[in-house]
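Exercise 7.
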Amino acid sequence: MADIKITDNVSLSTDLDLREDAPLLKAGLTSLIATGEHLFQNMDKPLDQANVQAVALGGNFNSPSLVSGDLTSLTFGVGMNCSLTVKKAVDQLLFDDDGFSPVIPIPANQAWLGVEFDLSATGTVAASANGVGVSFEGDGKLTCATYTLFSASPLPLLLDACGVGFSNFSLSTSAAEIRNQPPNTVNETEVTGSITAAVSFDQPFAMNALASANLPFNEAASIQPKVTLSLGSSLHVTGDFLVRCYKISDSVVRMGVYKKHGSTLAVTLTAGAGIEGKIGGDDVLNALLKAALPGVNVAAAGLSGDTAATLNGVVRDGLCRNLSATFNATCSAAFAHEAALLYDVQLDAGDSAATDSALGSALCGDWTALEALPNVRRIRNIAVDTVEKKTAITVNLFGFYSAVSTTDYLKTCTVLIDESGQVVITDKIDASRVSASTSPYAADRDKLRQALMEDFLCTATYAVASGKLNLNLSVMQSYHRYSNNMSVADVRESVSLGYALGLIPHGSLDVALNATSSFYHALVSAVVRYDTPALMNIFYKDPASQAQRSNAELEQVGRDVMCLLLDPSDPTDAIRLGVLQNNNAWAQMDEIGNTAAFSGIPELGGLGPTQLGAVSADWISIVWWAQALAKIAPALSATTLALGQAPPNNPSQDAGFMKARAKLANVLGDVTRNTSAAFVHGWGAAVMFALSGRHGSAEMDLTWNSKSLHYD
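Solution. The predicted structure, written as tokens, is:
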């Protein structure tokens, strides 16, 4: 045994007995400095009776370099570089329960003592044969701790427990170190860097082909609505992590990487042989377009060379953003560090050389080899969890059905992505409709939602007009929303969309929403698909006779749906609800028709500027929408009538049909130039679904704080 002195540098001191082979002695630890009397007053008390939770200490070293296995580039910090932690039965758990990893309970007559040191790394730690579980380069800071379990009756004195705890302090830097780690200890390293997880996976894409108001409508255009590509051979996940190595027994170790609470992960992909998209190469977009557009010659369309490389880079970035959003939504526990990768390894089974090799790779940040070992049990791997969900990435092709040909469409297109990784392919000239100012290839979230609503209306109209051509078009309306910390109001609004779509039983999530104050990495995705009969219901109250709804009928539907999306507990929403449900007030607003004069309406006279503005915005949205459908329906009827009278083989040669379709295009152009901002949110999707008689096919996914819900 060897003595290490703890002193307050004034009058108090005591000695700790450390084992001769303790790593801290090999690193040159000579003494520990404690401030104040509190620690010394508790040294002679049993561990469970000591009034100590956390104490800061300063360790002095003859040589501050820590040599552990092959890792020789870690040094101890200066000053107060150490802390002592005691966890007792009253604490119940050693670490907070993240809901995914097995907990470590603390029953009566047990306690844990943790010894933690701040370390600095220089050079490339990951370049050594082993590491600390996360790969990082350059200078970095690490916090390393060892927790030791004490189980006896009575428990040892705090002084004796400190001697054992400081003796056990070590780093899990190699397979040999893990095998030598004492049972009933946990080594933990807090570090920023990257981990690699093995995932070759099939990524589905939902191709949302859209028409614009412009002629022509290309009846010959063809697209595969669902495309799947094999992507990636591994995922690199960068962020703030904790790596824990829990030696459960001599033969079992639990290895895990935990995402730090409150941090954000970034995901990138690398490609392997035989992968269609080859994320590391330049043919992701090429593979996607060839699968979605059978027979298209992507190179002939001009998507080659530097242009292809640039646009492929945008698509790859979109894939990584989408995976990052999904990873963060999957791993976003509200109050605890959450397991991202967690495995139990049976050290006395399987091929020991293969096991040691896989452990060494994991300690360097590459956790792929552990997955294949027969003596390893996966508890959690968020990479696997994420890709097994196979959430489709939406690819919105604006103006696709309005191009003369697919080749011409691709010749003039560019690619944009939004913050959640949804992909937009659009005409370069028309890209300003959805582009953001932050980057040449960024899509603005709100502009994108508004443009999607505009072009959905155009596509739905043309799909109905072309129904007699038996195109059997499926029109999709999508809604995506992601935030690393979504407001309560925005989450409630998204849930209300699920209520309005008839997917979520009304009020079923109220308890969960009321019990949650913060919604970390919230991800909302809703998709509604319509076939031609469902679209006919949107435009006509009687599709067979093409009988149209009146303005009053349309406004009533718009008002009813708007009410479904409002929160009666919100003061402004309560005012809006009152007006939407007040037939007299609404009739006066319609009669006046000028929002500047609305304050003269008795029911609105007492409203403040903000409340009156919200009420006026509702009226503008609903009235515009009702008038738009009222204008489109007769023009659509005239077009379908003319189509029925035109030669069936080539209706574009019929003057009557072309005149009617040109008038329809003018109506659509006028409508979309005045689109309401209400379509930025979920009302546009909900009100169209209501008009269809809920005949569309809807589904929705909600994720926040690591909780995922699916509705269809």
